[in-house]
Amino acid sequence: MSSLPSKKLLDDLYSRFVVNGPEEEKQSMNRLMFLVESAHWYYEDNVVENDKTLKSLSLREFTRLLFNNSDVLRPHVANMDKIFSDFGYYKSRIPVAGAIILDETCERCLLVKGWKKSSNWSFPRGKKNTNEEDDVCAIREVLEETGFDVSKLLKKEEYIEITFGGKKRVRLYVVVGVRDDTAFAPLTKKEISQISWFRLDGLESGFAGLKLFEVAPFLASLKSWISKHYMSPLSIDKHLKPPLCVWTTTRKTRTKITVTSTERRCNVKPWKQSLKVNKSAILQALGICS
User: A GO biological process this protein is involved in (predicted)?
Assistant: First the structure.
């Protein structure tokens, strides 16, 4: 039978991710919950993965245990339902940025699929951090989800933006000219399960059985953008080819995370060594450390 995390382990997670987290993330319960979420990712993706005697926990279960283990957070346990309700509402309104990556012909775009089998396909994108610029967020998220650095190709003025339900703003920068033989692989763990090139005419007509709900709202504007900038309509392939998969996960693979010399040279703080992201690989790809 699986066991719950020990007090010692909870103390370590609380100290590493909450106590040593950035001060600006502790100014409200909603921001603090992002630190708790990072601790939960670490627990699930690394601790449980390497110790099968431990029980896998939902974020709510993990949060309750972590709060009960802390003298500071324990008084908030009684308000757990409201905390999660407020956190969900808060997250749903955080602006999102990413990129529509097109190949050299502008006939195919790169999509990623989430980790769960029920996940939708989408353009690589993610939520903005506090005070983060849209283009910086887009570069970071694309790098994390695909392993590809778009910083040299991204133009700040070239983007498509939609606000859904008058609440959530999504800005996707149009990045053109990426070779279709480019190597892609996510730098995150258990977030992306597949990366594929899709023909745009296929997205318009629809690929049977694929969930493209997060892609469809951008297609009309993208088609207009391509026609405006390249003065030619998309070619139509009468014999529609299936998506070209360029990376897929092997779910049984375990990944060990260690603090590398690169991280030491960059003086990465413990809370930033979130094992949701291979931090050293991101830093190297961005050229921050050499």
Answer: deadenylation-dependent decapping of nuclear-transcribed mRNA
pLDDT recorded at residue 289: 41
Q: Which long-range contacts (CB under 8 A, 24 or more apart) does 218-227 make?
A: 218/100, 218/123, 218/160, 218/162, 218/172, 221/160, 221/162, 222/100, 222/109, 222/160, 222/174, 225/158, 225/160, 225/174, 226/102, 226/106, 226/200
> pLDDT-derived band of residue 283, with 50, 70 and 90 as boundaries?
very low
Domain 96-252 in CATH: superfamily?
Answer: Nucleoside Triphosphate Pyrophosphohydrolase (3.90.79.10)
CA angle 142, 156, 159 (to 5 degrees): 75
Joined together, the tokens standing for residue 76 give: 């908030």
Question: 120: closest CA among 220, 35, 198, 201?
Answer: 198
Give the H or E element holding residue 21.
Answer: none
**Best CA proximity match to 273, nearest among 21, 8, 29:** 21
In the chain, what are the domain boundaries? 7-91, 96-252, 256-290
CATH topology of domain 7-91: Arc Repressor Mutant, subunit A (1.10.10)
Flag whether pLDDT at 288 surpasses 70: no
Compute the C-alpha angle 163/215/131, nearest 5°.
Answer: 45
Beta-strand runs (E) in the chain: 96-103, 108-114, 121-122, 125-127, 159-164, 168-178, 192-199, 244-248
